[in-house]
Write a structure and sequence with these properties.
Blueprint lengths: L1 E5 L9 H15 L3 E7 L8 E4 L11 H20 L2 E5 L3 H12 L4 E5 L2 H4 L6 H8 L3 E4 L2 H9 L7 E3 L13 H11 L5 E6 L8 H14 L3 E6 L5 H10 L6 E5 L3 H10 L2 E4 L8 H8 L4 E4 L2 H10 L3 E4 L4 H13 L6 H10 L2 H15 L3
Parallel strand pairs: 1-2, 1-4, 2-3, 4-5, 5-6, 6-7, 8-9, 8-11, 9-10, 11-12, 12-13
Helix pairs in contact: 1-15, 2-3, 7-10, 8-13
Length: 369
């Protein structure tokens, strides 16, 4: 099978719509299939990838950058579509929608995966987006909540399913000795390690997490919060941490490579997700796969995972630093690792091998095989 992956991002970008196509491409290659990629960026780095250059953000209101990106996509994607049996399109951008038009033009089916934003913010008024979904051979959703939202909005769908994101094999249980070594490297003086891994953005709401951390520190001076990620909110968050007097109690790690994120997840005592909007938070799954329990706000993805994983993932109200702090403190009063049942559920439903087989079934259906 020859598959074209169309996605706005690829690693080292750590968004879900970068990691899933990258991991799927690797899994397809291991099974003897071929995956090529079309993405935004500058030429180089990956021989199997064609790049569409992002134009200046300051001109985006004029629609000129989008028009230029669409024209370049049409030129570069045409040969890739013709060489492929089908396309797997990740999310909705100008590039993705142009690639979908090319698939129809060249009679190639396409599978569409939605990750969150394009559905959460859909207002029924975008006819182009509705056609984009209607013409897909199959639409997969990152969570049941996301599919339910699409149904509520009457998004036209021919065939559809929920396929949860895969957890990379690097996120796994470690021995007590291995964890101790990781923790000694991260915090030689000992103490409690809390972890958040997300883009620094208002929707991730690390501002509430910092407020909660200030409350936690009043009762647990040994607690330290590690925040891995970059983004437009970083300056404001650093200033807020300073105003709260958190000092060395909060460490901003910047963009951390995925293998190092796996070490952070394994070393942490507790993963804390403060987001106000999530479909399926892959970072929470990565923590659970590493044996680390999770406290999440009651965003849609957090609630969905809580129903699956029980008390290994507990939820609190969004934008409520008092509730978040109390839940963290309650866990620290009786710390533990995730249950064996959680490891079994991760292995059965969230590892790459199983997710790749589910997508291969979708591809075969799209191709009429």
């Amino acid at each position: 099978m020859n598959v074209l992956m169309v996605t706005p991002h690829l690693p080292p970008h750590q968004a879900a719509n970068a990691l899933l196509p990258h991991l799927l491409g690797r899994a397809l290659a291991e099974r003897g299939h071929t995956a090529r990629f079309l993405t935004f960026g500058r030429q180089g780095g990956r021989p199997d990838t064609a790049y569409v250059r992002r134009r200046a953000a300051r001109l985006r209101r004029t629609r000129l950058p989008q028009a230029l990106e669409a024209a370049e996509t049409w030129w570069k994607a045409g040969p890739l579509v013709r060489q492929s049996e089908l396309a797997h399109i990740h999310s909705s951008t100008w590039m993705n929608q142009v690639a979908a038009r090319l698939c129809l033009r060249h009679r190639r089916p396409y599978v569409l995966t939605h990750y969150g934003t394009e559905i959460w913010h859909h207002d029924r008024g975008d006819d182009r987006f509705r056609r984009f979904n209607r013409d897909a051979a199959h639409v997969t959703f990152y969570s049941q909540a996301l599919l339910d939202r699409a149904r509520d909005l009457d998004v036209p769908l021919r065939r559809f399913s929920v396929v949860y994101p895969p957890v990379a094999d690097a996120f796994t249980l470690r021995s007590a000795a291995a964890r101790a070594a990781l923790r000694a490297r991260l915090r030689p003086e000992g103490g409690v390690l809390l972890l958040n891994v997300k883009r620094l953005h208002p929707l991730a709401d690390q501002a509430t997490l910092l407020e909660a951390m200030a409350r936690v520190r009043r009762r647990r001076e040994d607690a330290v919060l590690l925040i891995a990620g970059t983004g437009e909110a970083e300056g404001d968050l650093r200033a807020q941490a300073s105003r709260l007097g958190l000092g060395s109690a909060v460490r901003f790690l910047g963009l951390v490579p995925n293998d190092e994120v796996a070490e952070l997840q394994a070393a942490a005592d507790l993963f804390v997700l403060s987001s106000v909007l999530e479909a399926t938070p892959t970072v929470a799954l990565e923590a659970l796969a590493s044996g680390t329990p999770v406290v999440s706000t009651d965003n849609p993805g957090g609630k969905e995972l809580a129903a699956l994983f029980g008390d290994d993932l507990t939820v609190v109200p969004m934008r409520d630093p008092d509730a978040l702090a109390e839940r963290i403190l309650a866990f620290l009063a009786a710390p533990r690792r995730a249950r064996e049942a959680t490891a079994g559920l991760i292995a059965g439903r969230f590892r790459l091998a199983g997710v790749a087989e589910r997508y291969l079934d979708v591809y075969r259906e799209a191709l009429g095989r």
